[in-house]
Amino acid sequence: MNLTQKIKNITFQNPILLASGTYGFGLKFSEVINQTGGIVTKTITFNPLIGNPPPRIYEIEGGVINSVGLENPGAVYFLKRILPNLKNLTTNLIVSVGGESGEEIIKVIKILDSHQLICAYELNFSCPNVKAGGILLGQEPRMVEKILKKVKNNTKKPIIAKIPATLCNPLEIAKAVENGGGDFVTITNTIPGLVIDVEKQKPFLGGIIGGISGNFLKYYSLYLIAKIKKIIKIPIIGCGGIKNYRDVLEYLSCGAMLVEVGTLNLQNPFGIVEIIKDLKKWAKKNKLKNLKEIIGKIEI
Amino acid sequence: MNKIFLEKGRIKRKINFSQEIIGFWVTAENISKHIQIGQFIHIKMVDNANLILRRPFSVADIKNRDLFFIFRIVGKGTLLMSKLTKNDELSILGPLGKPIEIPHEKNILILGGGLGVAPLYFLTKSLKKNKKNLFIILGAKNSKELILKEAFKKLKPKKLIFYTEDGTYGKKGKITDGISLIVEKEKIDVVYTAGPIAMLKEVKLLLENKAIKVYGFLEERMGCGVGLCYVCAVPKKEGGYFHLCEEGPCLSLKEIKL
User: Fold this and answer.
1) pLDDT at residue B47 is higher than 80
2) Are residues B6 and A54, on separate chains, in Cβ contact within 8 Å?
3) Does domain A5-52+70-192+213-293 have CATH number 3.20.20.70?
4) Which of residues 51-110 of A touch B (CB under 8 A)?
5) Is the pLDDT higher at B178 or at B124?
6) Dihedral (CA of A260, A221, A216, A121) sign
């Protein structure tokens, strides 16, 4: 039984990664991080962002709506003050990169690119593009393809594109990721949502718009992956509502080679370790030789 | 980073202070052993898949392997938790947050409103051990909601004043009525306060320009509780945000916007 996969020259000791935004920058709980296939950091932007006013979270049944607003210390601080403290990491460090434009993303990557510890970038295509009237960076296939081509010209490290699941045709966006030279596609990010405070007659979240995540999102994500798998060849990372090893198996069987666990980390910083242990147990019990035996076995 | 434990805590004793205010003594060996003043615990009911977030609570007291926390029924989570009884289990993450360092100053004023008295009791016990001069003002809506009265009396502070809004116990009025006088008269160096946000705002306003330290226990919607998600933001006076779960929950009121 072996859960290891080598994809695009990156070795993943198991298929389970920590999703961006939910596990900081890799500075804490290194003993947990090192048991995973990798950590995707909180999104790094060129300038520091202070984030949205509180409240930043609202709980819904089986999930949450968050509105942190990409709070982060900026690329230079991350390079100089955080990366040097991540030497304890023995697993893959994937840096989530965001910005208002392709240019900003490239500026961030140029700052970070010489650092050996970073094994890939995950582009956060759910950042709003202020200049283009606030539409998401990843909402428009031509823009996605253009950004990816430019980014690929500026780094040799693999590029993962985390695409939005709504307000666009995710199938077209995934295809654009492949056409632009993206190495992986993560399906999917949170979906936008609004919470209303009826008493105050105004939006509840300080940042007004939030991102909905949680178990329900899994079903939409699985559907998208099963569809998208048929039209692209690059590896898919499944994301959305994973709370146990069976959810991981669902993603793998629909065609994801890797998965990211997000919302669960907000409930239990050790929870991902249990999922990995349970997946190993299941693989052993079912005499699985490697993950290829289950990945993408379900066709719709 | 101090070690964080995830423990199954067993309810040892349930105290119904009122229909809405409940206290649990819970056996949680590791957390009880390591928790320091100012820290909090993050609780999830064991069997509830729908409510996925934990709820943060201050610790009111510890005794050997047990810890004591008090909560008010305010929503779905606390309503469900209020139905638990002896021997039921809770999933507890902790100790979390930044411990309070015992100040070197001598004259300390404690201001507690409503359930705010809970974390203040744990703190006050520690200040007492450190031989501080303690002046305490506690208040609530009515006598029933004025919890831990007897426990505070046993600490024998220099001064202990009670207020209730309806006058059913102690003086009639609000705790903020007596602050300015006592701060001047007793040459107070440090103030610790906890209670409803409106009360904290008033305390901040009253003491903002005085040359004393003023700390308050804050509350904010929380996610992970361990500094990973950045959900629990409290605005800094100078701009940007504190993360309550890491830098709090007890913060200098002079450094924040309320």
Assistant:
1) no
2) no
3) yes
4) 51-59, 61-64, 66, 68, 71
5) B124
6) positive
Q: Alpha-carbon distance A49 to A27, whole Å?
A: 19
pLDDT value at residue A133: 66
CB B32 within 8 A of CB B65: yes
Over residues B184-204, the mean pLDDT reads 95
Residues 6+ apart with CB under 8 A from A297: A253
Residues of chain A below pLDDT 70: 129-134
> Rounded to 5, what percent of chain A is helix, strand, coil?
30, 25, 45
The confidence score (pLDDT) of residue A1 equals 72
| B70-103 per-position pLDDT tens digit | 999 998 889 999 999 999 999 999 999 999 999 9
In three-state secondary structure terms, B86 is: coil
Residues paired with A135 in a beta bridge: A129
First to last CA, chain A: 28
Q: How far is residue B37's CA from residue B58's CA, in Å, rounded to a whole number?
A: 9
CA distance A272 to A280: 13
Q: What is the CATH number of domain B107-255?
A: 3.40.50.80
User: Which 3 state secondary structure label does DSSP give A119?
Assistant: strand
What positions of A carry a catalytic annotation? 127
The position carrying tokens 């079912």 is: A286
| pLDDT score, position B23 | 97
Phi-psi sector, A213: left (phi>0), alpha (psi -120 to 50), beta = beta
- Residue A131 has a pLDDT of 66
pLDDT at A148: 97
pLDDT at A130: 63
Nearest to A53 among B54, B222, B235 (CB): B235
Search chain B and give the residue with CA nearest A26.
B228
Are the C-beta atoms of A280 and A273 separated by less than 8 Å?
Answer: no
Among 3.50.50.60, 3.20.20.70, 1.10.1740.10, 2.40.30.10, what is the CATH number of B5-96? 2.40.30.10
The alpha-carbon gap from A181 to the nearest alpha carbon of chain B, in Å, equals: 31
